[in-house]
Amino acid sequence: MLTDPQSVTISAVAIPLPRVASQDRTSTYQSSDGNVTMIVSTPRGKRNRAVVRVTHRKVATDPFISGNSRSVSMTYTVTVDMPSDASYSVADAKAVMDGFDALLAASSGALKTKILSGEN
């Protein structure tokens, strides 16, 4: 089990995420205001998965109705899916993750900006 609480930094603000639920191979962590939730799941079967999902909620100006606000959310998910037969070790999978993380972080996150802008 991961340490409790977890913490995520968004816009230079560290947000503590205490564990609020745990069942089977899934734990849920949530900020005190409920605006940030992280779900970590590690199901096992013919293929092993590790899924981390962060959902962020905020109130934003409604672009369609002047003077109104609405609640909106976004989700960022990382999924690792690999055979359960140990043909990939944890070190192998971490090396792939590290390589992809470096690609996303390079040039101050330029690739993230391009992807979020709709490039493919």
Describe the structure.
With 120 residues, the protein is α+β, with helices and mostly antiparallel strands. It has 2 domains: 6-88, MS2 Viral Coat Protein, CATH 3.30.380.10; 89-120, no CATH class. The chain is built from 1 helix and 7 strands. The chain has one helix at residues 90-116, and strands at residues 6-10, 13-17, 19-23, 26-30, 36-41, 47-61, 69-83. The strands form 2 sheets. Strands 3-4-5-6-7 form a 5-stranded antiparallel β-sheet, with no helix packed on it. Strand 3 (19-23) and strand 4 form a beta hairpin. The model has no long low-confidence stretch (mean pLDDT 95).
Could you outline the blueprint of secondary structure elements for this entry?
Elements: E1 6-10, E2 13-17, E3 19-23, E4 26-30, E5 36-41, E6 47-61, E7 69-83, H1 90-116
Antiparallel strand pairs: 1-2, 3-4, 4-5, 5-6, 6-7
Relevant terms:
120 residues, alpha+beta, MS2 Viral Coat Protein, five-stranded antiparallel β-sheet, 1 helix, 7 strands, globular
CATH class call of the largest domain: Alpha Beta
Q: Please identify, by name, the CATH architecture of the largest domain.
A: 2-Layer Sandwich
The count of β-strands is 7
Strand arrangement within the widest β-sheet reads 3-4-5-6-7
Shape: globular
Strand content: over 45%
The residue-averaged pLDDT reads 95
How would a crystallographer describe the biggest sheet? Answer: 5 strands, antiparallel
Roughly how much helix do the residues carry, as a percent range? 10-25%
Taken in chain order, the helices and strands follow as EEEEEEEH
**Which structural class matches the secondary elements?**
alpha+beta
Runs with pLDDT <50, length 5+?
Answer: none
> What count of domains describes the coordinates?
2
Let me know the CATH homologous superfamily of the largest domain.
MS2 Viral Coat Protein
What's the tally of helices? 1
